[in-house]
Design brief:
With about 325 residues, the protein is of the alpha/beta class. The protein is built from eleven helices and five strands; from the N terminus they run βααβαβααβααβαααα.
Length: about 325
């Protein structure tokens, strides 16, 4: 028997891959089907943050003494107004460390850029991208340190193909969940963990939802999610966008993008993550102490625009 404890948020719950009669299936269920005599315990919860996984899901997983455990979390952290990359990385690290110490093979993941998935304007997408890179850098370090089975969806070209995503562009659809299950299956096989040779079927077993069904979902459940998130995310994003426009959000270097070699993590050469890409009070513009600089940059931008307009008028 292979006991599989799946920890995480709505992606691991299976949201986006509905089953007849209600409920969700998802990549963890699909992957479990390829393990010898599987016993799946899906402990993931909707909207979970990294701290929630450590506080509520980890104790339940430890009591199960799993052979395999997955920790897929972090995207909800990046969508919070009080985002703190160090706090997120620390929680993920402690969760993975405890599971590895118990003898479990642990699956981790580099998550895609939510700004790119949502199709946000650049001023909003860039700050979200920096947040996601900070979380991924932290998870890379955790994967290197504890030798996890580490899936890189952030750099997988298929990740950003529209056909793998639900209408909300935040959760995989059935095809997307099958893609994740197939990728993890291949990594487990490469790590010589006992799995069925063929792996999950990459093709959906159910017809895709109709356009009407997708619009109905967004008009009801999708709108409710947006309202809940808007209470803290939207003010923070507005603050980040203003900082981006004024050019005052780049004082600290972004994490260096490296190409991890997960088949030999000890020699991967990954550098320690820079978890301070964004200040902790990310929704606070912090303009008062730096107002002269901000005004100068604003004047410079306006002057450059006026010069361009003058040159265009002269040519005309």
């Amino acid at each position: 028997m292979t006991r599989f404890a799946a920890l995480g948020d709505s992606i691991t719950v299976g949201m986006g891959d509905p089953v007849p009669g209600g409920g969700w299936r998802g990549w963890a269920t699909l992957l479990a089907g390829t393990l010898p005599q599987p016993e799946l315990h899906n402990l993931a919860t909707l909207g979970a943050l990294a701290a929630d996984v450590e506080r509520a899901q980890l104790p339940a997983a430890m009591a199960l003494r799993p052979d395999v455990a997955s920790v897929v979390v972090g995207i909800n952290d990046t969508l919070r107004g009080d985002f703190d990359p160090e706090r997120t990385g620390t929680s993920i690290g402690r969760t993975v460390a405890a599971l590895r110490a118990s003898g479990a093979e642990v699956l981790t993941i580099r998550l895609p850029d939510p700004g790119q998935m949502f199709g946000l304007p650049g001023a909003l997408a860039r700050p979200l991208a920096r947040r996601m890179r900070a979380v991924n850098a932290a998870v890379d370090e955790v994967a290197r340190r504890y030798r996890t089975v580490h899936l890189d969806t952030a750099r997988d070209p298929a990740t950003y193909e529209r056909r793998y995503w639900s209408v909300d562009r935040l959760h995989p659809n059935e095809r997307g969940h099958r893609l994740i299950a197939c990728r993890f299956h291949a990594l487990l096989a490469a790590a010589e963990f006992p799995v069925a040779g063929s792996g999950p079927d990459p093709e959906p077993s159910s017809p895709p939802p109709t356009r009407l069904a997708e619009v109905g979902w967004m008009a009801t459940k999708g709108t409710a999610w947006l309202i809940r998130r808007s209470r803290d995310l939207v003010p923070a994003l507005v603050g980040l966008a203003v900082r981006e426009w004024l050019g005052i959000g780049h004082e600290e270097p972004e994490p260096e993008i490296t190409e991890p070699k997960y088949t030999d993590l000890e020699n991967a050469g990954l550098e320690r993550a820079n978890l301070n890409v964004l200040s902790k009070p990310s929704g606070n513009l912090q303009l008062y102490g730096r107002l002269p600089s901000a005004r100068l940059k604003l004047r410079n931008r306006l002057s450059q625009r006026n010069e361009r307009r003058s040159r265009t008028a002269a040519v005309s």
